[in-house]
Design a protein that fits this description.
Elements: H1 2-27, E1 31-33, H2 38-44, E2 47-50, E3 62-67, H3 75-87, H4 94-100, H5 103-109, H6 111-114, E4 115-124, E5 129-136, E6 141-147, H7 149-154, E7 156-161, E8 164-167, H8 170-185, E9 188-198, E10 213-222, H9 229-238, E11 242-246, H10 251-260, E12 268-270, H11 271-275, H12 279-286, E13 291-293, H13 297-309, E14 314-317, H14 324-329, E15 332-336, H15 341-346, E16 349-351, H16 356-397, H17 405-419, H18 440-468, H19 477-499, H20 513-528
Parallel strand pairs: 2-11, 2-14, 7-10, 11-13, 12-13, 14-15, 15-16
Antiparallel strand pairs: 1-16, 3-10, 4-5, 5-6, 6-9, 7-8, 9-10
Helix pairs in contact: 1-16, 2-16, 3-4, 12-13, 16-18, 16-19, 17-19, 17-20, 18-19, 19-20
Length: 531
């Protein structure tokens, strides 16, 4: 019982040492492990779901254009967008920051002197827009709304053209959508801006007030594609990891970004389509889709859940408030050190650099760590299974114990020391070329096949000691026990060098220096002790 308990603690120690060693190696590559068990999942990951902004793009959003509904420059659009971003109290997005970088608007409007904030209708991912209400120089209240173009158009009834206000008819609506599509095709992200005047006595404000608005125009942002993204995607694909983009943006700009970074798009699925699909129907669609656009946070989480249900090991990379649910749902949640607090809290791994190249290094290290753990599991199970057969047969046939309890304990102690080199061992390059996941049946087959094979060496040792060295009586039992002690320790210690590689040990695949030194030291001590 004591030996069995020590084996449990030993296995925990070796596995934890492997994971800890992997975490240290990953930290040197700018990958911080919060949940140590997630290292194995990182090595097994075969689908990476990621947001577009900051991962495939440079995360350096610039306000490029401010246009009226006809596509002409409009200072009024920029001024209203600035007021909206300036007065909102929620977490400011990168789009808001890009708008607020135009400090000359702040001076021109004399915001503190002319405007007083009255109320705010916060952003949410269902409406995909937000509003602020300001009072200008003790006159009327003005509700300023900005958000996704389709959603803004749905709540507008008129459009502003210079000093003129005209009805928002179908022709104008189609013209705005076409202008938006053209800008999206150029890689620009587009937000619409609208407003309406409200009497001063009208408060408090609610979602119902976001209606009958006047469209002022569009603001367009550029977030250039990240130069390293194409190389990182190519390396991930080569390593058996498919990349899928989950974004709140529309499908046009998402497709343009994917094209710029060399990500082949096989299919596109929109959030509105996902809502109408059952779990079974969605499961059939997610496999073939590369881009999932116009998503809510819960839709992101649902997609990951469906992918996991189809047997995939799914990683999700996100850094916003809207990514928290998906980070928790994924097998491996990945965030960055510049992310919002809730995203970092929800993640298993935090990158010190928002780059897929850094993540790719982490994937390789995860597979390396997993490989070393599998070496130990295979070695421990096959050795224990083989020793059981050897001890059982010897106990039946021999008139004495095949090995003394003190020798068994010493054998275990030295064998445990020999395993401490496993976390420092290297892994064959071809082992890192594809995702690796637990295959219990494979480990079971290995144990059943290799365990009895190791017993053949034990029985050969028994025959040698019994017939050649004449250790076949109670008086000579010490010679027999010592012989098996040495042979058992040698074979157990050397077997890891066969298990650690599919190639020819020592010739085609060499162990690390630490692994080789530990093996030599343990074998030397095992041979020396009997003398």
């Amino acid at each position: 019982i004591s030996s069995a308990a020590s084996d449990v603690y030993k296995r925990q120690m070796i596995v934890t040492a492997n994971l800890s060693r992997g975490a240290i190696s990953m930290s040197k590559k700018k990958v911080i492990v919060k949940n140590i068990d997630s290292i194995q999942n990182l090595g097994a990951m075969n689908i990476l779901c990621t947001d577009k902004t900051g991962t495939l793009t440079q995360d350096r959003i610039i306000l490029e254009m401010h246009l009226n509904y006809l596509g002409r420059d409009s200072a009024e659009v920029l001024q209203l967008a600035f007021l909206n971003s300036f007065y909102q109290t929620g977490l400011k997005s990168l789009l808001d920051v890009a708008v607020l970088n135009h400090l000359e608007i702040h001076a021109a409007l004399e915001i503190e002197n002319r405007f007083i904030k009255i109320d705010e209708i916060p952003f949410d991912f269902q409406r995909r827009l937000m509003s602020v209400v300001v009072e200008e120089e003790n006159h009327h209240h003005e509700l300023i709304c900005k958000g996704a173009v389709e959603e803004i158009l749905a709540i507008c009834i008129q459009v502003k053209d210079g000093d003129l206000i005209k009805p928002l008819d179908q022709a104008i609506r189609e013209g705005v959508l076409q202008l938006t599509s053209n800008l999206n095709n150029d890689g620009l992200r587009v937000i619409a801006v609208a407003y309406k005047e409200v009497p001063r006595q009208h408060e408090p404000y609610s979602l119902a007030d976001e209606s009958a608005l006047t469209l002022v125009g569009l603001i367009a942002f550029l977030d250039p594609p990240k130069e390293s993204a194409a190389q990182a995607i190519k390396e991930l694909n080569r390593g058996g990891v498919a990349v899928k983009v989950l974004t709140g943006d529309n499908q046009v700009i998402a497709r343009k970004t994917c094209k710029d970074v060399g990500l082949h798009v096989e299919g596109i699925l929109l959030g509105s389509e996902i809502e109408a699909l059952s779990e079974q129907e969605l499961g059939a669609r997610v496999e073939g889709a590369t881009i999932f656009a116009k998503l809510t946070p819960l839709q992101k989480s649902r997609i990951i859940k469906v992918l996991r249900g189809r047997g995939h090991v799914v990683g999700f990379m996100g850094d916003g408030i809207n990514d928290a649910a998906a980070l928790r749902e994924a097998d491996i949640g990945i965030s960055v050190d510049t992310a919002v607090d809730i995203a970092k809290e929800s993640a298993d791994i935090v990158l010190l650099e928002k780059s897929l190249l850094v993540l790719n290094e982490g994937v390789a290290e995860g597979r390396r760590t997993f490989g070393n753990i599998v070496k130990y599991i295979k070695m421990g199970t096959s050795s224990a299974f083989g020793n059981m057969f050897s001890m059982l047969g010897a106990s039946i046939a021999l008139p004495f114990l095949p090995m003394l309890p003190v020798q068994i304990l010493l054998n275990n102690l030295l064998y445990d020391f020999s395993q401490t080199g496993i976390p420092f061992d290297q892994v064959d390059p071809d082992y890192l070329e594809k995702p690796r996941k637990w295959k219990v049946n494979e480990i079971r087959r290995f144990m059943v096949c290799i365990g009895p094979v190791s017993s053949l060496f034990d029985y050969a040792t028994f025959a040698l000691m019994w017939f050649v060295f004449k250790a076949n009586s109670v008086e000579n039992q010490s010679l027999f026990q010592t012989g098996w002690f040495v042979e058992s320790l040698m074979t157990q210690t050397l077997i890891v060098h066969i298990i650690r590689t599919a190639k020819v040990p020592f010739l085609q695949s060499r162990p690390s220096l630490a692994m080789a030194l530990v093996t030599v030291c343990v074998m030397g001590i095992g041979i020396m002790i009997p003398f």
